[in-house]
Design goal:
The chain is an alpha/beta fold. The protein has a domain of about 100 residues. About 25% of the residues lie in helices and about 20% in strands. The chain has an eight-stranded parallel β-sheet. Strands 17-18-19-23-21 form a five-stranded antiparallel β-sheet. A two-stranded antiparallel ribbon has the order 1-2. The longest helix has 18 residues. It starts with a strand and ends with a strand.
Amino acid sequence: MKRFALIAAALMASAPAIATPAPAQSAVAQTAVAPPAPESFRERGVEDEIIYFVLPDRFANGDTANDRGGYPADRMRSGYDPAHKGFYHGGDLKGLTEKLDYIQGMGVTAIWFAPIFKNKPVQGKPGDPESFSAGYHGYWVTDFTQVDPHFGTNADFEAFVAAAHARGMKVYMDIIANHTADVIRFAEDEYAYRSKGDYPYSTRGGPGGPAINEGFDPADPSAENWARLTDPSFAYTPVVPEGERHVKVPAWLNDPIYYHNRGDTFWTGESSVDGDFVGLDDLFTEHPRVIDGMIAIFGDWIDRYGIDGFRIDTARHVNPEFWQAFVPAMLARAEARGIPNFHIFGEIAYDTPDAVTAARVMAEADLPYALDMGFAKAAQLVASGKESPAVMAELLTQDVIYPGGAVTATGLPTFLGNHDFGRFSMFLRDYAETGDRAELLARTKLGHAMMFALRGVPTVYYGDEQGFISDGNDQLAREDMFESRVDAYNDNALLGTDATTVQANFDTGHPLYRLIRELSAMRTGSPALRRGLSTVRGFDHEGPGLLAVERYDAASGSRVLTAFNTSGEPITRDIAVDYDARALTPLAGECPAAVTAPGSVRLTIPAFGWAVCELEAK
């Protein structure tokens, strides 16, 4: 990955004040240096990375010959329709490989991409044509051993990993153990969730029905006990269509006995773990065969390609015992392959600005890290001005509740928006209730400054650096970086540019691209910004205003004060700092040369601006 030398000179980085004229926000200039030697990139800890998350189908089309994945030229068979937001558009691994210069130019050190396993090309509800869409996103897996032919081949994946590693960049795969593609149907032609109480494993069709699975106890983890589970029709009668009897790979995945077969989840309680995720076949992850099978599947990707981490999809919808077996096995596999600091982080979805849900699931499942959903929501609310900076301050004070304490929070991937919830700028527009593009650009820059200067591993969602602003979540937030033919994308006014998604958007001069490059250099050059623990030093608890956080890395002695202004007016404040601090060096924004008095420094921060100041002891 690219490392940067930090220089003291300042560059203009963010927008000027909106309500009142004020000096423009400044950020440090930096000079790019050569990427680290290939043999040293794995020495970086998980806290040292800057992640870029991308959907390969929507990024770059390096090989038009695979656009239909080798399927017939029928969109309902190939899944290819570049004018429809829910079908394949043609992006692939060769295109992603060709754009590594562009990605690394932002200071990115690790690439996380949506699943590239072979998917069911098209699926939907029979009889409802509008429900059908394609597996362009990668989450409808049929073959866990092969790259989806729309994205290329296993050899293309090997070439991509090799090219990234040659640059010192890490590669994180997106994996799924909760479910496979929707293949299993029910003879009853009903799909509402059927609970264990109403439909126990011991009878077919509920209490009073024929006895099955004699002697089986789902609480007994032994292989002998699970061998007694021979009939999967305890709740529904699973049926596999004739043409799909052998579609899943490895072959054991084709047996309905390895699925819960209880119908669709309604997202809470028992159904959250045992129900089908929007119809997707929910794996019986308590089963020893499933545990061993998934360990073998994903361990093989480590063995073959030497990848550097996993993002785990739908992690909270799998029983904790599965992860307690799976995670140590993956870490051991990585260690045997000579891969230290293997980064495993789970998707634990929720939509509140707190750490409680993530910390609880991590503790239950022994998951090392999770995507920081709480940070995303706090950043959306605070940077938009909808809520006061107290929301972010409260989130940071909760770092101690993570397993392992506050140090764990430094390894949580933080993000602002994503492919499921929608883009950050969309939330800012809606929460701030403004269509003013200059204000939205300034607030978007402020949010990125928060993500790079506060604790956690910054994770940039592809297209954010080009000012993409989604119309909604899911398909509406998955725009094309190459020339788009989707009307719902092409009518959006992007931030920081007059371009639209009709054209390709790989502009390295875009103000957000340049800002991310500058923030990456700032973070890479500061141990405190990469690994420092947080002490909240000040915040406004009513309306927009000040958030100040000091970060300290004990190993290096590095200490930094970060301060943000979420209001449309400049502010001047006296902020508490460590009593040993005397001099300040600006890493971004304007910093005074010295403290006002021991334990206090006065900062002036422009509207929607920030300051990041290195504190030097007496």
